[in-house]
Amino acid sequence: MNRVSLSFLKSLVVASLAVSGFACAADAQHAAAKADPAKGATLFDSGDAARGVPACASCHGAGGNSAIATNPKIGGQFEQYVYKQLVDFTTPNRNQAIMTTYAKALSDDEKKNIAAYLATQKPTAGAARNKDTVELGRKIYRGGIADKGVAACASCHGATGSGIPAKYPRLAGQHQDYTVAQLEAFKAGARNNSVEMTALSKRLTTDEMKAVADYVAGLK
């Protein structure tokens, strides 16, 4: 074998080892980033007293199924969506005194673990309460309000409020009070982490918000 061939072979071996090394590093990084629902469950149920992080369940209920109308049901919510909201709480785009404080205390992995745990939980059903407005809510949710440029909620969140993973959250069964509060926050600019929701909420009256929120609560 001449010197040129030997040199070429050495180059191939070095290149192969380099590629292999990069692949192993990427695999290791992926494995390290994989969320752990079990760890998320522990943090959700018990918190971390040493860091002053309370149990998420104290506000959001067992399995994320809050019984408090102003606190959202998050059991069964999409993993990517929950993680994004926890990150957003640490930015000016979604500043909320309680959640911002706790979200900033969580590491990125802990946010992912909690999100992964909640995605494994089964959401509880809700119910519409106002028979006088449920039809208006249904019309807005399913058909929007054409003359005001309000798109149908179902076009993003699905006919049954099941949402679209990694894009739009599940809404079915959500507390009326919480849904109205978020629509009002989008409208006022207090919550600024969705261009679409900010634009749409500005075109809704308070009564329209309440009607659609009540309809959403009864979706299954």
TrEMBL record:
Secretion signal, residue range per the UniProt entry: 1-25
UniProtKB keywords: Electron transport, Heme, Iron, Metal-binding, Periplasm, Signal, Transport
Localization per Swiss-Prot or TrEMBL: Periplasm
Cytochrome c domain location: 35-122, 132-220
Recorded superkingdom: Bacteria
Pfam families (alphabetical): Cytochrom_C (PF00034)
Predominant cellular place of this UniProt entry's protein: periplasm
Classification via PANTHER family: CBB3-TYPE CYTOCHROME C OXIDASE SUBUNIT FIXP, CYTOCHROME C4
Protein name: Cytochrome c4
Protein species of origin: Massilia solisilvae
Lineage of origin: Bacteria, Pseudomonadati, Pseudomonadota, Betaproteobacteria, Burkholderiales
